[in-house]
Every structure is written in C-alpha cells, then in structure tokens.
Design goal:
Adenylosuccinate Synthetase, subunit A, domain 2; alpha/beta; single chain; 12 helices; 4-stranded mixed sheet; binds inosinic acid; Adenylosuccinate Synthetase, Chain A, domain 3
Amino acid sequence: MPRNVVVIGTQWGDEGKGKIVDWLAEQVHGVVRFQGGHNAGHTLVVNGKKTVLRLIPSGMLHPHTTCYLGNGVVVSPADLMKEIGELEAAGVEVRSRLKIAHACPVVAPYHVAVDQAREAKRGDAKIGTTGRGIGPTYEDKVARRAIRLHDLTEPTLEAKLKEVLEYHNFMLANYLNAPTVDYAQTLDTLRKAGEQIAPMLADVSHALTEARRHGKPLLFEGAQGTLLDVDNGTYPFVTSSNCVSGAAGPGAGVGARMIDYVLGITKAYTTRVGSGPFPTELFDDIGAGLAKRGNEFGSVTGRPRRCGWLDIPALKRSFEINGVDGMAIMKLDVLSGMDEIKICTGYDFRGEWIDRLPYGSSAVADCKPVYETLAGWKESVFGIRKFEQLPMNAQSYLKRVEALTGVPIALVSTGFERDDTILMQHPLN
Ligand code: IMP
C-alpha cells in the first residue's frame, strides 16, 4: 500500500516544499495543509508556467487530486477567494476539489492591522513578519475568542465580531497608536466571504480517515520551516504555528498513525527571511551570489532572503524534532560554479564545541560556525535527472551531507521545473 507522507521544511522556510508536493501529488488522492496561512508562498513551475500558491495546497494543479485545508490552517477569506479567482482565471477547477475544515480560524482585517502596528512599534526589534495577520489570529485561537469559518454564516457572528473587535480596537487605539477597524464594514466583508466559502466547508477529519481506510494515499504539506516553529524554532523570531511533522495530526484532525513517512525538504544551502539569528549567514559576495543565482526573494512579500552555507547542527536538530525519514535536497544547481563549498559541521558555542542548534535566539546568536571545506564543481547541474550524471564533486557533496546527518537523500532538485528532480528513494513506496 502506498505510504502517507508528510512534507516539512527543515530550515527557515522557502526550502522548495511546493515543488516537491506538486511532484509527488501526481500519485496521491489528496494533499492536506495543516498549519500556517497565506504567509506561505509555494511556487510551482509546470511547462515554464509559474504558479504561486499561498493557502491552497500544492496538489491543485493535478486535476484528479483533492485538496484539503485542515483546521490548523488560518484562513483569510478575502485572500482565499482571491487565490481561487486567480487559479480559475488560469483554467483550474478549484471549488469542487477544495475541502475546508469548519474550524479554521479566520484571519480578519483587524489581525492585519495589529500585526503591522505591532511590528512598527517594535522598530529595530521587529520579528520581520509577513504582515499578514498570522500571529494575532493564532493568539485569538489560543485565547478562545477566534471567529472560525463555521461562524461566518451563523447568526452569532455579529456578537462574536463585536466582542473580538472591541478587544483589538482597544489595543490598536490605546497601545499601538494605530487607526481602529470599522465594525460594520468588517461584518459585511466576512458575511459575504462566508457565503462564498460555505459550499467548500467539509468534514476534513472524516474525509481523510475514509481515504486512509480505502488505501488512498495522502500528502500532508507543511508551510514555513522547523526553525520557524513556535515551540522549537529560534523563538521569538518564529511564526505562530507548529511547522513540524507532528503538527499534521492536530492540524488536520487525524491521528498519529496517519503518517508513514516524513520527508524533510532541505535547501542545499541556507536562507532566512525576516529577523533573527542565522549562524552561517554570509555577508560577502558568496552570499550575494547564492541570492542572485537562487533568486532568493520572498514569494509572498518580495523581501530579499538572507543566504548562507548549509548548517548541519541546525539540520540535526530539525531532523530529530520531525523524525525525518528522508531528505529532498533542493536547488543543488545554485551551488554550481563555486571553487569551494563549505558545510557547517558544528558550532563554537561560548567556548565549547556543540553539534546541535541550541534553543532560544540569544543562544543561537552566540553560535560561531565551524566549517568543513569541500571542492566545488564548475559544470552546470541544471535540469539533471540522474544521480550518476552529476559531477563527481556534486555527488561527493550530497554523500557528505548524508554522512553528516545520518539521513538518506530521497530526492534531489536540480531546477525549478516539476521534473528537474533526481529520484533516489521514492517517499510514497
Ligand atoms: P509571520 O508568520 O508572518 O508571523 O512571520 C514570522 C516569521 O516567519 C518571519 O520571520 C517571516 O519572515 C517568517 N515566515 C513566515 N512565513 C514564511 C514562509 O512561508 N517562508 C519563509 N519565512 C516565513
């Protein structure tokens, strides 16, 4: 029987999860998002055509695939409808194939206002959020005052909105010195969006359980990355959800036994967007070269991404947290043309050698990377689809990464097109 696979980012997001989910989705019944919101940006390139998905699972371009938004996803009704509209304009049938959990918390305009005003107030100490209201929405969920999708068509919406908006407007006016959000306009927007979304609401938990019972394989698609996880990441420079494999259960409403294989998506170097410590960050021409060749600009915000060498101690931490069974190494082509390539194998941490990323951002900021240097390769590897066709030094690089992490490589990506992918071990079989 094919395996259910959870695909997660092992670094600070932007590893290339969307490409791999799209590639694997060919063979599955369903693709399930279980956390995050439209702060994510998953880029798919099929036959030269680029599609950026933010909320909609990366299986949407395969017509036979059902896409699910689990209850752990925070949904901005306006952005969801915009994304659906964009896909429909490109000829993709969405509404009959998108099943959304009733319990998804709603991202509303007051969350965006609070997110942005709070970042402005923080000044230099800002987290560098995407400004999409994600953090304040998860706060409302945990504080048990969130409006959820099923509320949008209930008569109780008015009273709920009044209460939650009173709280946020008090915060905006009295603490953040920012304009407040209008009640009547918000109510009207939410009601209209609720009517459009209602036909797509479904019992996702039950549908996934039934798919499993009938042997139909599922892919669980993580957003962001492990080092941005609210519990395990470089707190407080993190997102507000759990981005790790174990979050697929509560975020999709399924049990722990639903997952058979954990695929850790890992860029061949490291990037980070937003603030926070980044031990292997490069501030020189080498970093600028990676950014240029890798086109490292945020797909949601357009912000330039910070770039650095591959960080094994961070990966080791990440692989343990997720229980990674296999890695997909992404963007190997970006490393071509370099004389030498460095891999961080440990840190000098306050005078002591450590080989695991420590917890907390001040500790991570004190990690000085210790590097091993490997010979680079000059040849392009762009679009190569067989491991044996890679230059010997590229093969050695990959083998060294496997040896240092102790985790096998399942896939290697050598270009942005769906099929620019080397298969080493199939995650689904
Ligand atoms: P938030 O998720 O908008 O609250 O942003 C919190 C942190 O997570 C910031 O550093 C963002 O840049 C980062 N972040 C959020 N979503 C993504 C993503 O999809 N890729 C990379 N970084 C992200």
